Input
Amino acid sequence: MKRRARRDLHNALQVPALYLLGDGPWPSPTLIHIRLHTKFVDLGDLQGTHFHYATRQEVTPTIVFQRSEIEPQSGAIISIEPGEAYRVDNVKPPDDEFVVAEVIRLSERQAAGLPVPEGA
Output
């Protein structure tokens, strides 16, 4: 039941993306469907309390991949739309049918010219 619920969630929230491996040009990028997450973490916080420790918010974007589509590799580029792309940094261990990777957002200049999914 949990597996089906996770599949349903992924299907409802997925967005199309292109998986690009290598430095290009990419003659046939792979169309995949991902879930992009941005997570805000308070750094400097001591177990949920702010006792005058310096704090800041750190953005750690992650992407959820369905393993039946792709097994992501570090260094791959995930292109979502013009000017929005991410480089896979750290791939976490698989969790059943899914795998999560920490990613680094590319600047608009770095993402310029990358292929994007049709209709993006």
Observations:
- The chain has two helices and eight strands.
- The radius of gyration is 16 Å.
